[in-house]
Amino acid sequence: MTNDKNLKTYLSKAQQEHWAIGHFNFSTAEQLKAIVEAAAELKSPVMVATSEGEAEFVGYDQAVALVKSYQQAGYAVWLNADHHKSFESAKKAIDAGYDTVLIDASRLNLDENIGTTSQVVQYAHRGLTSIMVEGELGYLRGSSEVQEKVEINPTDYTQPEQAADFVARTGVERLAVVFGNIHGIVTEVITTTPTPNGVGAPTEASGEEKLDIEHLKKITVAVPETILVLHGASGLPDEDVRAAIAAGISNVHINTELRVAYHDTLHAELEKEPNQTTPYKFLASSQDAMKELVKKKLKLFGSVDKI
Ligand code: G3H
Ligand code: ZN
What we know:
Largest sheet: 8 strands, parallel, barrel
Number of helices: 12
Radius of gyration: 19 Å
Bound molecules: glyceraldehyde-3-phosphate, zinc ion
CATH superfamily: Aldolase class I
């Protein structure tokens, strides 16, 4: 295994060859181990990540030290600060030594989003320790959990012209885009069709999460150099994920499905062996479940045998 190529090189290769690098969140050391081992067994480069909450739980310095231990052993793994919502939290991750950061200022208006994102890019690119920065544009609904109801509204989508402007003005190298994707697994999706006056009217309820691939193609044309990132891939049908990768996505984020696999397996294990108190024994099956799921996703993303 080798780590002599950097993340940027792998992402560019993925972009050119139409496959995607998997990006998986972790909250504990054994979850990280499951992801890294799954990727290594399949010879897949992989991104691991902590959100602000996950990073506070693991510890910023500790997350960096854990991932560094794998990098020093030659694993092709990189640590991302996922959905860091302010300059201050992104700076904290950069200062701790994260390999890359997603500054997610998408809840702000466009000018404020550009302002905060640019500030992070300037900080990340200062001096000798330049790291890759991702920005986010559009309104990505939901959160990384199982939810009953989330609305999908095309007015939330990333607008192609705005994407080009955003990339030019901020200097981000990756962009999180919205084209029907939502965070989490949803049991009921409400699809809203915008009326001519711009006000959405709920038209359809279904259990299906569905990507708008034609819209993604317009974004790809508008920002051909930028690495496009699919967030919220949990709960999407495999064929949608494949179609998104074929249409220009080079990086796919999964969190909820891993959380569910870990939680459900652990829950079953504790029910089966209620008197087992040794963590490395009662956590082994949930770690395995995560590992198997990561492998399945890496095969879906086409990143096997790329190292
Ligand atoms: O940034 C994290 C991902 O977008 C996770 O989304 O929980 O729907 O898999 P997900
Ligand atoms: Zn996300």
